[in-house]
Amino acid sequence: MKKNFAAKAGSEKELLWQSRFSEPMDERALKFSSSVHIDWRLYKEDIMGSIAHATMLAEEKIISKADAAKITKGLREIEKEIEAGKLDLDWRQEDIHTLIENRLKEKIGDVSGKLHTARSRNDQVATDTRLWMRRTADEIIAALNAMNQTLIDKAEASQKIIVPGYTHLQRAQPILLAHYYLAYLEMFSRDVERFEDALKRINRSPLGAAAFAGSSLPVNRRRTGSLLGFSDILHNSIDAVSDRDTVIEFVSACAVVMMHLSRFAEDVILWTSEEFKFLEISDAFATGSSIMPQKKNPDMAELVRGKTGRVYGDLIALLTMMKGLPMSYNRDMQEDKPPLFDAATTTLDCLHIFDLLVQHTRVREEHLARITANDLSLATELAEYLVRKGVPFRDAHRITGKIVSFSLQHQTALPQISLSDYQTFSPQFDQDVFDVLTPEASVNRKRSEGSTSPQSVAAQLRRHKTKKKSTPPRPLY
Asked: Annotated catalytic sites, by residue?
């Protein structure tokens, strides 16, 4: 939508709460407290919630059906005006909710005043926020599922490629590259589950809680909740307007996604360096240097890694804002929108760009084949070879450690050590020891479920490909 923020001369309108006051609000105070430049994002949800509220009021005979129809028609027209950029988002009108209500009055007259019957901005804002989170969680889940599909595709294509696996950033054991991709697939799959689980709590309606104590009018909260696609209502009116735990949970889930993306980004940054040479990023997703012509920088991955800190900051801001608030509603809660919107937008942007980056990254297979062939990461295979010969693991570990020292001292790779030398460390070594000293043998011999063996990797792929993707509920309006 086109955004037109303005404060035109003569655009002042009475604020919704101003009748009790004897003098107008100081313009500096109004500008300081105005949130239109932030909460304009809720315009669609605000209109959706207002239509549901008006529908319920008419059904309960609190207002007439004719008045509800006028209100609904006017709100639909305002929605189109905002989307076309024809309605100034005037900060003098305090927030998007006031702006929409004042515009509705301009369009349909005093009938518009009936819309706010049995409703406060407190439950109105809480409802809008939950509707927005529900819709945005749906978008994040879709982006995560797209990333997961990319990882499935990458894993399928790399079931025979072996890479060094790392612990402590030191080479540890050979693994299938597919197994590596599937590890991130598991992480992002849990991120999907986190958002789906959060939706169970987000998808409850606060509408009808009014300011915090409820209403004496016979409103039907379950009806508005049903119209808006909520699965339940919030059962305590104070809680409905005074907590932001679902916002915190939403942003926390964003922070975990960003943590996973950041770790993945760090791997890409390392693996595309000249020191590793495991991967190569497409030129379309890299940048150069303004002074060093040879440079090819993984800036997209670095930006994802950097933006993770922003989302962490959003989470800390929300937790800090809420930690000392007394019951029930406090204006501090207006400050939940900037971190919420920033976290969601940043997470979505990073998911989209990183998905593209992974799609357009090439594996340097020949280089990987060379460096895994004679690597000390096969040492664990020696220890397990001895275990299969009846040697206790601790003894096998000690013996293998001495063999590694011998290998380093004589600058001889494990597969090149002679059988006679092996037998000086243990008489259990025989000619078949060389059968285990290849990266292919290392991955093929794995037996535990969830391991890096080709059979296990294929089973993991099958499980993810048959997994059912759930869809969050859609509102009727």
From this structure: 168, 289
